[in-house]
Amino acid sequence: MAEKLPKIPLHVAFIMDGNGRWARARGLPRLKGHEAGADAVRRVMGYCRDWGIRYLTLYAFSTENWSRPALEVAGLMKLLMVFLRNNERELHEHRVRLRVIGRRADLPAAVVRQITRVEAATAGYDGGTLILALSYSGRSELAQAARRIAEEVAAGTLKPDSISEATVAAHLYAPDIPDPDLIVRTSGEFRLSNFLLWQAAYSELVVTPVLWPDFGADDFRAALEAYAERDRRFGGIGGGDALPEGRNT
Ligand code: FPP
Q1: Which pLDDT score is estimated for 242?
Q2: pLDDT digit string (tens) for 170-222?
Q3: Neighbours of 15 (CB within 10 A)
Q4: Is the dihedral of CA 137, 138, 144, 148 positive or negative?
Q5: Which residue has the CA at smallest separation from atom 3 of ligand 1?
Q6: CA 10, 11, 16: angle at the middle one, nearest 5?
C-alpha cells in the first residue's frame, strides 16, 4: 500500500519516451522496446490504483508518429490491439473506463473497432479512467475544435461574441475530463511535443531521465513527491484554492 503524501494529483498524464533507446541499449529491434513499454503501461495502471489517481492519460501515438517506418507503425498498432485484448479483463475487474482521444479516423479499422467496443463496454465504470492519446496532437485537437465552433457559427447556433475559453474547452476531444495536474515525461527531454497543449496550461511538469520501459514504482513515487512539493498558484499569489476561469480542476 502506498504511504500518504500531502496531496495526490487527480489526473496524471505521461509522455512515454525512450522505448527506442531502451531497445538500442540492449541490441534489440525498436519494437521490443515498445513491447517493454506496454508492460510499463500495465505497471503504471497498477500504481495509479495504489495511489488513488482517478485519471491516467498516456501519449501512446502522436500524429507525428505516422512518419516512422511502416513496419514500426504497424507493430505499434498491433501492440495496441494485443494490449487491449490482454488488459480488457483488468479494466472490467477494476471498473476502469477506457477513453481515446485523437484523430481516430486515421487509425486502422480493426483498431477503431476494438477501441470503440472497449470504450462502450467500460462506459458505465467509475473505478478510474484510462485515456489513450492515439493519432493525437494538441494542435490538431485545437484545429478540430476551431472547425466545429466555426460550423456552429455558420449554422447560426453560436454567436462569435459568445465564444469564451469555456467554448473552446467544450469542443476538445474529452471535455468532461479534468485537466492533468501532473505531466511526467520520461527519458530526459524537456518538451511537451504537442501533447495536451490546451489542457497543460497549469499542469506541473516532471521530467525524469528514466527510459519509459524502466519506469517503476520508485520513479512513480518520486514524481508524486515532486508534485506534492509544488506550490500551485494558477497565476495568483498562492495560499488559496481559487481556480482561474476555464479551469475545471
Ligand atoms: C516513444 O518512444 C514511444 C512511442 C512513440 C510509443 C509509445 C508506445 C508504447 C509505450 C507501447 C504501446 C502503448 C500502449 C498503450 C499499449 P521512442 O520510440 O520515441 O523512443 P526513443 O526516443 O528512445 O527512440
Answers
A1: 47
A2: 999 999 999 999 999 999 999 999 999 999 999 999 999 999 999 999 999 99
A3: 25
A4: positive
A5: 17
A6: 150
* Number of domains within the chain: 1
Residue 209 is assigned to a structural domain of this protein: yes
- Could you give the CA distance from residue 223 to residue 44 in angstroms, rounded to a whole number? 12
Look up the domain containing 197 and give its range.
Answer: 11-137+180-228
Cell of 172: 476538445
8 Å CB contact between 187 and 210: yes
Mean pLDDT of the chain: 94
d(CA 213, CA 105): 28
Q: What pLDDT, on the 0 to 100 scale, is given for residue 237?
A: 80
Ligand 1 atom closest to Cα of 35? Answer: 11
39 domain residue, yes or no: yes
What count of other Cβ atoms lies within 10 Å of the Cβ of residue 152? 14
pTM: 0.94
Which entry of 17, 179, 181, 219 is annotated as an active-site residue? 17
Q: What is the pLDDT of residues 61-113, one digit of tens each?
A: 999 999 999 999 999 999 999 999 999 999 999 999 999 999 999 999 999 99
21 alpha carbon – ligand 1 mean position (Å): 10
CATH number of the domain encompassing residue 95: 3.40.1180.10
Cα–Cα distance for residue pair 17/188, rounded to 1 Å: 8
- Per the structure block, which three cell numbers stand in for 136? 493525437
Residue nearest to atom 7 of ligand 1 (CA): 60
Say yes or no: CB of residue 23 within 6 Å of ligand 1. no
Candidate from 14, 16, 98 with most ligand 1 atoms within 8 A of CB, to mutate: 16
